[in-house]
Amino acid sequence: MVSTELASELRRLGFRGSGVRYELPSATHWLLMGLQRSTSSTADEVRFTVNLSAVDRQAWATKRETEKWMGMRPSANVLGPVTTSKRLGKLVWGADTWFAVRPHSSTKEVASKVRDAIRDEGIPWLRAQESSSRPRP
After folding, report:
1. If 0-12 CB within 10 Å is exposed, 13-18 middle and 19+ buried, where does residue 63 land?
2. Given phi > 0 = left and psi -120 to 50 = alpha, else beta, which region is 124?
3. pTM of this prediction?
4. Cα 55 vs. chain centroid, distance in angstroms?
5. According to the model, what pLDDT value does residue 128 have?
6. How far apart are alpha carbons 131 and 14 in whole angstroms?
7. In degrees rounded to 5, what are phi and psi of residue 34?
8. 55 φ, ψ to 5°?
9. Alpha-carbon distance 51 to 68, whole Å?
């Protein structure tokens, strides 16, 4: 579903990436979206959620100087010390939301729901995090 129905739509919305990791371009922040697969997923049903994260690049670099365990760049699916995160379901529907896809079943409805939520709420939330941490003149 991700590669056939969601990835091209995410790129059309301005994201770069593939698979479960996507990023909106920004000079000052990592604006990340990650698809997280549930550990309870089976061959009969894959469950996933959508994580959004905004990370100031300079704050990450500064923190990395003393926290050597931190990678060169953050991940939307792993909380970091200078990360602002939100689950898409919490943002849009007010509750943590996990989507289910099953083999041999249409995934168009799920893909459309996720895409619309990312477009209408996810991207504006990410951009708001980017602008809220910029210094004011």
Report:
1. middle
2. alpha
3. 0.89
4. 12
5. 96
6. 17
7. -130, 140
8. -135, 120
9. 24
For 79-124, what is each residue's pLDDT tens digit? 888 889 999 999 999 999 999 999 888 888 999 999 999 999 999 9
Region for 14 from its dihedrals, namely left if φ exceeds 0, alpha if ψ lies in -120 to 50, beta otherwise: left
Tokens of 17: 């990436």
The average confidence (pLDDT) of the chain is: 91
Q: Half-sphere exposure of 23 toward its Cβ, with a 13 Å CA cutoff?
A: 13
pLDDT recorded at residue 135: 45
Using CB atoms within 10 A of its CB, is residue 28 exposed (0-12), middle (13-18) or buried (19+)? middle
How would residue 134 be classed by pLDDT, with cut points 50, 70 and 90? Answer: low
Beta strands in 5-82 (DSSP E): 16-18, 21-24, 29-37, 46-56
The confidence score (pLDDT) of residue 80 equals 82
Task: Give the span between the Cα atoms of 49 and 7, in whole angstroms.
Answer: 15
Burial of 16 (0-12, 13-18, 19+ CB in 10 A): exposed
